[in-house]
Design brief:
Low-confidence stretches: 58-62, 80-92
Helix content: 40-55%
Strand content: 5-15%
Strand order of the largest sheet: 3-2-5-6
Structural class: alpha+beta
Mean pLDDT: 83
Radius of gyration: 33 Å
Number of strands: 8
Distance between the termini: 90 Å
Number of helices: 23
Length: 458
Protein backbone atom coordinates (compact mmCIF):
# COMPACT_ATOMS: atom_id res chain seq x y z
CA UNK A 1 0.00 0.00 0.00
CA UNK A 2 1.50 3.29 -1.14
CA UNK A 3 1.24 6.33 1.10
CA UNK A 4 1.99 9.92 0.23
CA UNK A 5 1.02 13.58 0.46
CA UNK A 6 -1.14 15.27 -2.19
CA UNK A 7 -2.53 18.78 -2.65
CA UNK A 8 -6.19 18.99 -3.71
CA UNK A 9 -8.17 22.14 -4.53
CA UNK A 10 -11.80 21.96 -3.35
CA UNK A 11 -14.70 24.40 -3.19
CA UNK A 12 -17.09 24.42 -0.25
CA UNK A 13 -19.71 26.68 1.27
CA UNK A 14 -20.12 27.37 4.95
CA UNK A 15 -21.86 29.96 7.06
CA UNK A 16 -19.51 32.35 8.84
CA UNK A 17 -20.97 34.29 11.77
CA UNK A 18 -19.65 37.76 11.02
CA UNK A 19 -20.23 40.63 13.47
CA UNK A 20 -22.77 42.10 11.03
CA UNK A 21 -24.71 38.84 10.87
CA UNK A 22 -24.74 38.58 14.66
CA UNK A 23 -26.06 42.13 14.82
CA UNK A 24 -28.85 41.34 12.33
CA UNK A 25 -29.90 38.29 14.36
CA UNK A 26 -29.82 40.31 17.57
CA UNK A 27 -31.93 43.11 16.05
CA UNK A 28 -34.50 40.62 14.76
CA UNK A 29 -34.83 39.12 18.23
CA UNK A 30 -35.22 42.48 20.00
CA UNK A 31 -38.62 43.63 21.23
CA UNK A 32 -39.71 47.13 20.17
CA UNK A 33 -38.55 48.67 23.48
CA UNK A 34 -35.20 46.85 23.37
CA UNK A 35 -34.71 47.98 19.76
CA UNK A 36 -35.39 51.59 20.73
CA UNK A 37 -32.77 51.41 23.50
CA UNK A 38 -30.28 49.73 21.13
CA UNK A 39 -30.77 52.46 18.49
CA UNK A 40 -30.17 55.19 21.08
CA UNK A 41 -26.95 53.43 22.09
CA UNK A 42 -25.79 53.16 18.47
CA UNK A 43 -26.53 56.86 17.84
CA UNK A 44 -24.29 57.74 20.80
CA UNK A 45 -21.44 55.49 19.60
CA UNK A 46 -21.61 56.17 15.86
CA UNK A 47 -21.26 59.81 14.70
CA UNK A 48 -22.41 58.90 11.17
CA UNK A 49 -25.97 58.11 12.34
CA UNK A 50 -28.65 60.69 12.99
CA UNK A 51 -32.44 60.74 13.22
CA UNK A 52 -34.14 61.93 10.04
CA UNK A 53 -35.43 65.49 9.97
CA UNK A 54 -39.05 64.31 9.57
CA UNK A 55 -38.89 62.38 12.86
CA UNK A 56 -37.32 65.39 14.59
CA UNK A 57 -40.17 67.63 13.45
CA UNK A 58 -42.75 65.15 14.65
CA UNK A 59 -41.13 64.98 18.09
CA UNK A 60 -40.25 68.66 18.50
CA UNK A 61 -43.14 70.49 16.82
CA UNK A 62 -46.87 70.03 17.51
CA UNK A 63 -49.24 69.52 14.62
CA UNK A 64 -50.82 72.59 13.04
CA UNK A 65 -54.24 71.81 14.50
CA UNK A 66 -52.71 71.34 17.97
CA UNK A 67 -50.76 74.63 18.13
CA UNK A 68 -51.94 77.10 20.76
CA UNK A 69 -52.42 80.77 19.95
CA UNK A 70 -50.87 82.11 23.14
CA UNK A 71 -51.46 85.72 22.12
CA UNK A 72 -55.20 85.15 21.84
CA UNK A 73 -55.16 83.18 25.10
CA UNK A 74 -53.43 86.07 26.93
CA UNK A 75 -55.92 88.62 25.57
CA UNK A 76 -58.91 86.52 26.68
CA UNK A 77 -57.48 85.57 30.06
CA UNK A 78 -58.83 88.66 31.86
CA UNK A 79 -62.33 87.93 30.59
CA UNK A 80 -62.69 85.00 32.98
CA UNK A 81 -64.13 86.52 36.12
CA UNK A 82 -63.45 83.47 38.27
CA UNK A 83 -59.74 84.12 37.82
CA UNK A 84 -60.17 87.46 39.59
CA UNK A 85 -62.72 86.80 42.28
CA UNK A 86 -63.15 83.07 42.83
CA UNK A 87 -59.84 82.48 44.57
CA UNK A 88 -58.45 84.74 47.28
CA UNK A 89 -55.01 83.70 48.39
CA UNK A 90 -51.76 85.42 49.19
CA UNK A 91 -49.82 86.06 45.98
CA UNK A 92 -46.57 85.80 47.93
CA UNK A 93 -47.38 82.17 48.75
CA UNK A 94 -48.82 81.26 45.36
CA UNK A 95 -49.08 77.57 44.53
CA UNK A 96 -49.38 75.42 41.45
CA UNK A 97 -50.98 71.99 41.45
CA UNK A 98 -48.47 70.85 38.81
CA UNK A 99 -45.71 71.29 41.39
CA UNK A 100 -47.32 68.82 43.79
CA UNK A 101 -45.76 65.37 43.49
CA UNK A 102 -47.86 62.53 44.83
CA UNK A 103 -46.36 59.19 45.79
CA UNK A 104 -48.13 56.29 47.45
CA UNK A 105 -46.62 55.57 50.89
CA UNK A 106 -44.84 52.29 51.47
CA UNK A 107 -46.14 49.78 53.99
CA UNK A 108 -43.43 50.77 56.49
CA UNK A 109 -44.21 54.49 56.13
CA UNK A 110 -47.93 53.83 56.60
CA UNK A 111 -47.33 51.79 59.77
CA UNK A 112 -44.71 54.14 61.22
CA UNK A 113 -47.14 57.05 60.91
CA UNK A 114 -49.75 55.10 62.89
CA UNK A 115 -47.12 53.99 65.40
CA UNK A 116 -46.01 57.59 65.94
CA UNK A 117 -49.54 58.39 67.15
CA UNK A 118 -49.35 55.64 69.79
CA UNK A 119 -48.32 56.71 73.27
CA UNK A 120 -45.58 54.29 74.43
CA UNK A 121 -42.32 54.37 76.34
CA UNK A 122 -39.04 54.94 74.48
CA UNK A 123 -37.97 51.27 74.70
CA UNK A 124 -41.24 50.17 73.14
CA UNK A 125 -40.75 52.61 70.25
CA UNK A 126 -37.46 50.91 69.42
CA UNK A 127 -39.17 47.50 69.42
CA UNK A 128 -42.04 48.77 67.24
CA UNK A 129 -39.76 50.33 64.65
CA UNK A 130 -37.67 47.15 64.50
CA UNK A 131 -40.77 45.00 63.94
CA UNK A 132 -42.15 47.32 61.26
CA UNK A 133 -38.88 47.40 59.34
CA UNK A 134 -38.68 43.60 59.57
CA UNK A 135 -41.99 43.04 57.76
CA UNK A 136 -41.97 41.47 54.31
CA UNK A 137 -43.60 43.12 51.29
CA UNK A 138 -46.76 41.04 51.79
CA UNK A 139 -47.09 42.30 55.39
CA UNK A 140 -45.98 39.16 57.25
CA UNK A 141 -43.44 39.01 60.07
CA UNK A 142 -41.10 36.07 59.48
CA UNK A 143 -38.50 37.03 62.10
CA UNK A 144 -39.10 35.06 65.33
CA UNK A 145 -40.11 37.12 68.37
CA UNK A 146 -37.34 35.49 70.40
CA UNK A 147 -34.75 36.69 67.88
CA UNK A 148 -36.08 40.27 68.06
CA UNK A 149 -36.00 40.17 71.89
CA UNK A 150 -32.45 38.83 71.89
CA UNK A 151 -31.24 41.42 69.37
CA UNK A 152 -32.76 44.36 71.28
CA UNK A 153 -32.00 42.90 74.73
CA UNK A 154 -35.68 43.10 75.64
CA UNK A 155 -38.14 40.76 77.31
CA UNK A 156 -40.15 38.48 75.00
CA UNK A 157 -43.34 39.61 76.70
CA UNK A 158 -42.61 43.23 75.79
CA UNK A 159 -42.01 42.32 72.14
CA UNK A 160 -45.26 40.34 72.06
CA UNK A 161 -47.14 43.32 73.52
CA UNK A 162 -45.79 45.75 70.93
CA UNK A 163 -46.47 43.23 68.15
CA UNK A 164 -50.07 42.98 69.35
CA UNK A 165 -50.42 46.76 69.08
CA UNK A 166 -49.02 46.81 65.54
CA UNK A 167 -51.44 44.04 64.56
CA UNK A 168 -54.32 46.44 65.30
CA UNK A 169 -53.07 48.88 62.67
CA UNK A 170 -54.32 49.31 59.12
CA UNK A 171 -54.26 47.26 56.89
CA UNK A 172 -56.03 44.55 58.93
CA UNK A 173 -53.94 41.40 59.23
CA UNK A 174 -50.57 43.13 59.02
CA UNK A 175 -47.63 41.81 61.08
CA UNK A 176 -49.14 38.31 61.21
CA UNK A 177 -46.75 35.38 61.48
CA UNK A 178 -48.89 32.91 59.51
CA UNK A 179 -51.90 32.82 57.23
CA UNK A 180 -54.10 31.56 60.07
CA UNK A 181 -53.07 34.44 62.32
CA UNK A 182 -53.62 36.92 59.48
CA UNK A 183 -57.19 35.69 58.95
CA UNK A 184 -57.81 35.64 62.71
CA UNK A 185 -56.77 39.29 63.03
CA UNK A 186 -59.04 40.34 60.18
CA UNK A 187 -62.02 38.47 61.67
CA UNK A 188 -61.47 40.13 65.07
CA UNK A 189 -61.11 43.49 63.33
CA UNK A 190 -64.51 42.92 61.66
CA UNK A 191 -66.10 41.84 64.93
CA UNK A 192 -66.92 38.26 63.91
CA UNK A 193 -68.60 36.43 66.83
CA UNK A 194 -69.06 32.96 65.32
CA UNK A 195 -66.61 30.63 67.11
CA UNK A 196 -66.80 28.10 64.26
CA UNK A 197 -65.07 30.64 62.01
CA UNK A 198 -62.05 30.80 64.31
CA UNK A 199 -62.02 27.01 64.75
CA UNK A 200 -61.97 26.46 60.98
CA UNK A 201 -59.17 29.00 60.54
CA UNK A 202 -57.11 27.43 63.31
CA UNK A 203 -57.52 23.76 62.42
CA UNK A 204 -59.00 23.22 58.95
CA UNK A 205 -57.23 25.45 56.40
CA UNK A 206 -55.73 22.43 54.61
CA UNK A 207 -59.18 20.80 54.40
CA UNK A 208 -60.62 24.02 52.96
CA UNK A 209 -57.97 23.99 50.23
CA UNK A 210 -59.06 20.44 49.29
CA UNK A 211 -62.79 21.34 49.44
CA UNK A 212 -63.43 18.74 52.17
CA UNK A 213 -66.46 20.50 53.59
CA UNK A 214 -68.43 17.38 54.70
CA UNK A 215 -65.57 16.24 56.96
CA UNK A 216 -65.34 19.67 58.60
CA UNK A 217 -69.12 19.75 59.09
CA UNK A 218 -69.05 16.33 60.75
CA UNK A 219 -66.25 17.34 63.13
CA UNK A 220 -67.95 20.59 64.15
CA UNK A 221 -71.45 19.09 64.19
CA UNK A 222 -72.84 21.71 61.82
CA UNK A 223 -74.33 21.54 58.30
CA UNK A 224 -72.19 21.39 55.17
CA UNK A 225 -73.93 24.51 53.86
CA UNK A 226 -72.83 26.46 56.95
CA UNK A 227 -69.23 25.33 56.46
CA UNK A 228 -69.43 26.43 52.83
CA UNK A 229 -70.79 29.85 53.82
CA UNK A 230 -67.92 30.27 56.30
CA UNK A 231 -65.38 29.29 53.67
CA UNK A 232 -66.96 31.71 51.16
CA UNK A 233 -66.55 34.46 53.77
CA UNK A 234 -62.91 33.54 54.42
CA UNK A 235 -62.18 33.75 50.70
CA UNK A 236 -63.20 37.43 50.81
CA UNK A 237 -60.40 38.23 53.30
CA UNK A 238 -56.98 39.48 52.19
CA UNK A 239 -54.29 36.78 52.55
CA UNK A 240 -51.51 39.32 51.80
CA UNK A 241 -52.39 42.58 53.60
CA UNK A 242 -49.25 44.40 52.48
CA UNK A 243 -49.88 43.72 48.82
CA UNK A 244 -51.55 47.04 47.99
CA UNK A 245 -48.54 48.97 49.32
CA UNK A 246 -46.02 47.02 47.25
CA UNK A 247 -44.28 48.83 44.41
CA UNK A 248 -45.90 48.15 41.06
CA UNK A 249 -43.72 47.52 38.01
CA UNK A 250 -45.96 48.28 35.06
CA UNK A 251 -44.96 46.66 31.80
CA UNK A 252 -46.55 48.13 28.72
CA UNK A 253 -47.00 46.24 25.47
CA UNK A 254 -46.13 48.16 22.32
CA UNK A 255 -47.51 46.32 19.26
CA UNK A 256 -45.03 45.96 16.41
CA UNK A 257 -47.77 45.56 13.81
CA UNK A 258 -51.40 46.67 13.62
CA UNK A 259 -53.99 44.66 11.68
CA UNK A 260 -56.98 46.75 10.58
CA UNK A 261 -60.15 45.55 8.93
CA UNK A 262 -61.48 47.83 6.18
CA UNK A 263 -64.54 46.39 4.52
CA UNK A 264 -63.94 42.69 3.98
CA UNK A 265 -60.15 42.96 3.78
CA UNK A 266 -57.45 43.05 6.45
CA UNK A 267 -54.58 45.49 6.11
CA UNK A 268 -51.24 45.23 7.91
CA UNK A 269 -49.69 48.47 9.16
CA UNK A 270 -46.20 48.38 10.71
CA UNK A 271 -46.09 50.33 13.97
CA UNK A 272 -42.82 52.23 13.63
CA UNK A 273 -43.81 55.26 15.69
CA UNK A 274 -41.35 54.33 18.46
CA UNK A 275 -38.56 53.39 16.05
CA UNK A 276 -36.84 56.51 14.67
CA UNK A 277 -35.85 56.63 11.00
CA UNK A 278 -32.08 56.71 10.74
CA UNK A 279 -30.04 58.50 8.09
CA UNK A 280 -26.36 59.19 7.37
CA UNK A 281 -25.08 62.65 8.25
CA UNK A 282 -24.41 64.63 5.07
CA UNK A 283 -21.43 66.57 6.44
CA UNK A 284 -19.57 63.33 7.14
CA UNK A 285 -20.52 61.99 3.71
CA UNK A 286 -18.81 65.02 2.14
CA UNK A 287 -15.72 64.36 4.26
CA UNK A 288 -15.63 60.79 2.95
CA UNK A 289 -15.94 61.87 -0.68
CA UNK A 290 -13.40 64.71 -0.40
CA UNK A 291 -10.86 63.01 1.87
CA UNK A 292 -7.86 60.89 0.94
CA UNK A 293 -8.04 57.11 1.25
CA UNK A 294 -5.04 56.90 3.55
CA UNK A 295 -6.31 59.60 5.89
CA UNK A 296 -6.95 58.20 9.40
CA UNK A 297 -10.14 60.25 9.79
CA UNK A 298 -11.48 58.92 6.48
CA UNK A 299 -10.70 55.34 7.49
CA UNK A 300 -12.53 55.85 10.78
CA UNK A 301 -15.55 57.42 9.08
CA UNK A 302 -15.62 54.73 6.41
CA UNK A 303 -15.75 52.04 9.10
CA UNK A 304 -18.55 53.89 10.91
CA UNK A 305 -20.35 54.42 7.59
CA UNK A 306 -20.37 50.67 6.88
CA UNK A 307 -21.66 49.94 10.39
CA UNK A 308 -24.40 52.55 10.03
CA UNK A 309 -25.54 51.21 6.66
CA UNK A 310 -25.66 47.66 8.02
CA UNK A 311 -27.66 48.83 11.06
CA UNK A 312 -30.23 50.60 8.86
CA UNK A 313 -30.44 47.59 6.56
CA UNK A 314 -30.90 45.21 9.52
CA UNK A 315 -33.71 47.33 10.98
CA UNK A 316 -35.51 47.40 7.61
CA UNK A 317 -35.03 43.67 7.17
CA UNK A 318 -36.42 43.07 10.68
CA UNK A 319 -39.61 44.93 9.86
CA UNK A 320 -39.97 43.17 6.49
CA UNK A 321 -39.62 39.75 8.15
CA UNK A 322 -42.20 40.59 10.84
CA UNK A 323 -44.53 41.98 8.15
CA UNK A 324 -44.29 38.79 6.07
CA UNK A 325 -44.93 36.60 9.13
CA UNK A 326 -48.00 38.60 10.13
CA UNK A 327 -49.22 38.55 6.54
CA UNK A 328 -49.15 34.74 6.54
CA UNK A 329 -50.79 34.59 9.99
CA UNK A 330 -53.68 36.76 8.80
CA UNK A 331 -54.09 34.62 5.67
CA UNK A 332 -54.09 31.31 7.59
CA UNK A 333 -56.08 32.46 10.65
CA UNK A 334 -58.83 34.46 8.93
CA UNK A 335 -61.52 32.44 10.74
CA UNK A 336 -59.97 33.50 14.04
CA UNK A 337 -60.22 37.19 13.14
CA UNK A 338 -63.74 36.77 11.80
CA UNK A 339 -65.34 34.46 14.40
CA UNK A 340 -63.21 34.46 17.55
CA UNK A 341 -60.75 32.40 19.58
CA UNK A 342 -62.62 29.12 19.18
CA UNK A 343 -61.69 29.08 15.50
CA UNK A 344 -57.92 29.31 15.91
CA UNK A 345 -56.27 26.71 13.67
CA UNK A 346 -53.11 24.76 14.49
CA UNK A 347 -50.04 26.28 12.88
CA UNK A 348 -46.31 25.62 13.14
CA UNK A 349 -43.25 27.78 12.69
CA UNK A 350 -42.11 25.55 9.81
CA UNK A 351 -45.29 26.23 7.83
CA UNK A 352 -44.73 29.99 7.94
CA UNK A 353 -40.98 29.58 7.32
CA UNK A 354 -41.66 27.58 4.16
CA UNK A 355 -44.17 30.17 2.93
CA UNK A 356 -41.82 33.16 3.27
CA UNK A 357 -38.65 31.26 2.37
CA UNK A 358 -36.63 31.50 5.59
CA UNK A 359 -35.46 29.11 8.30
CA UNK A 360 -37.92 28.38 11.11
CA UNK A 361 -35.44 29.75 13.66
CA UNK A 362 -35.81 33.11 11.89
CA UNK A 363 -39.59 32.92 12.32
CA UNK A 364 -39.09 32.01 15.98
CA UNK A 365 -36.94 35.10 16.54
CA UNK A 366 -39.40 37.28 14.61
CA UNK A 367 -42.34 36.17 16.77
CA UNK A 368 -40.72 36.02 20.20
CA UNK A 369 -41.69 39.11 22.22
CA UNK A 370 -43.45 40.76 19.25
CA UNK A 371 -47.10 41.78 19.49
CA UNK A 372 -49.84 42.44 16.98
CA UNK A 373 -52.88 44.64 17.57
CA UNK A 374 -55.98 43.21 15.91
CA UNK A 375 -59.72 44.02 15.89
CA UNK A 376 -60.22 41.18 18.42
CA UNK A 377 -57.39 42.16 20.80
CA UNK A 378 -53.63 42.41 21.16
CA UNK A 379 -51.71 39.12 21.02
CA UNK A 380 -48.12 37.95 21.05
CA UNK A 381 -47.27 36.47 17.67
CA UNK A 382 -46.38 33.16 19.31
CA UNK A 383 -50.03 32.89 20.41
CA UNK A 384 -51.01 31.88 16.87
CA UNK A 385 -48.56 28.95 16.80
CA UNK A 386 -49.87 25.87 18.57
CA UNK A 387 -50.47 22.21 18.03
CA UNK A 388 -53.97 20.82 17.71
CA UNK A 389 -56.20 17.88 16.87
CA UNK A 390 -58.38 17.18 13.83
CA UNK A 391 -62.14 17.54 14.13
CA UNK A 392 -64.94 15.72 12.31
CA UNK A 393 -64.65 18.07 9.34
CA UNK A 394 -61.05 17.01 8.79
CA UNK A 395 -59.76 20.46 9.74
CA UNK A 396 -57.27 21.07 12.54
CA UNK A 397 -58.30 22.70 15.80
CA UNK A 398 -55.67 24.51 17.87
CA UNK A 399 -55.20 23.79 21.56
CA UNK A 400 -56.25 27.36 22.44
CA UNK A 401 -59.55 26.75 20.65
CA UNK A 402 -60.11 23.54 22.59
CA UNK A 403 -59.45 25.41 25.86
CA UNK A 404 -62.14 27.91 24.93
CA UNK A 405 -64.58 25.06 24.30
CA UNK A 406 -63.70 23.56 27.71
CA UNK A 407 -64.22 26.93 29.39
CA UNK A 408 -67.65 27.29 27.77
CA UNK A 409 -68.67 23.80 28.95
CA UNK A 410 -67.55 24.52 32.53
CA UNK A 411 -69.34 27.87 32.58
CA UNK A 412 -72.62 26.02 31.97
CA UNK A 413 -72.09 23.16 34.45
CA UNK A 414 -74.16 22.65 37.59
CA UNK A 415 -71.97 23.76 40.55
CA UNK A 416 -73.52 21.07 42.74
CA UNK A 417 -72.70 18.39 40.17
CA UNK A 418 -69.50 19.51 38.44
CA UNK A 419 -68.40 17.69 35.33
CA UNK A 420 -65.56 15.21 35.52
CA UNK A 421 -62.78 15.17 32.93
CA UNK A 422 -64.38 12.09 31.33
CA UNK A 423 -67.66 13.95 31.02
CA UNK A 424 -65.92 17.00 29.52
CA UNK A 425 -64.23 14.72 26.97
CA UNK A 426 -67.64 13.29 26.07
CA UNK A 427 -69.08 16.79 25.66
CA UNK A 428 -66.21 17.72 23.35
CA UNK A 429 -66.70 14.52 21.36
CA UNK A 430 -70.32 15.54 20.79
CA UNK A 431 -68.98 18.75 19.24
CA UNK A 432 -66.66 16.76 16.95
CA UNK A 433 -63.52 17.21 19.06
CA UNK A 434 -62.11 13.83 20.07
CA UNK A 435 -59.45 14.06 22.77
CA UNK A 436 -58.63 11.83 25.74
CA UNK A 437 -59.44 12.43 29.38
CA UNK A 438 -55.76 13.02 30.15
CA UNK A 439 -55.60 15.73 27.48
CA UNK A 440 -58.67 17.40 29.00
CA UNK A 441 -57.00 17.31 32.42
CA UNK A 442 -53.84 18.86 30.95
CA UNK A 443 -55.75 21.71 29.28
CA UNK A 444 -57.82 22.28 32.43
CA UNK A 445 -54.68 22.56 34.56
CA UNK A 446 -53.15 24.98 32.03
CA UNK A 447 -56.21 27.20 32.52
CA UNK A 448 -55.79 27.04 36.35
CA UNK A 449 -59.19 25.37 36.74
CA UNK A 450 -59.42 22.96 39.72
CA UNK A 451 -60.72 19.41 39.47
CA UNK A 452 -64.42 18.54 39.83
CA UNK A 453 -64.04 17.61 43.51
CA UNK A 454 -62.66 21.09 44.29
CA UNK A 455 -65.27 22.88 42.18
CA UNK A 456 -68.22 21.22 43.88
CA UNK A 457 -70.72 23.38 45.77
CA UNK A 458 -72.95 22.02 48.55
Amino acid sequence: MEMGFNLNLEQSQKLVMTPQLRQAIKILQFTSLELEEYIDQQIENNPMIEISEEDKKVKEEPAEDQKVDWKEYAEDFDNYEYCKDAFHHNSDNDFNYENIIFRNPTLQEHLLFQFSLTYLEADFHEIGEYIIHSLEDNGYLKVPVSEIAEHLHQDIGAVESVLGIIQTFDPPGVAARSLAECLMIQCKHMGVKNENVYTIIESYLDEIACNKYPGIAKDLNISTEEVQDICDFLKTLEPKPGRKYASIDNRYVVPDVVVKKIGDDYYIVPNDRNTPRLTIRKDYQKMLSNGEENDEAVKFLNDKFNNAMWLIKSIEQRMQTIYKVVEQIVAKQRCFFEQGKKYLKPMTLKEIADEIGVHESTVSRATNGKYVETPVGTFELKYFFSSGVPNDNGEGLASESIKNYIREILDQENPKKPLSDDRIAAELAAKGIKISRRTVAKYREDMKIPSSSKRKRY
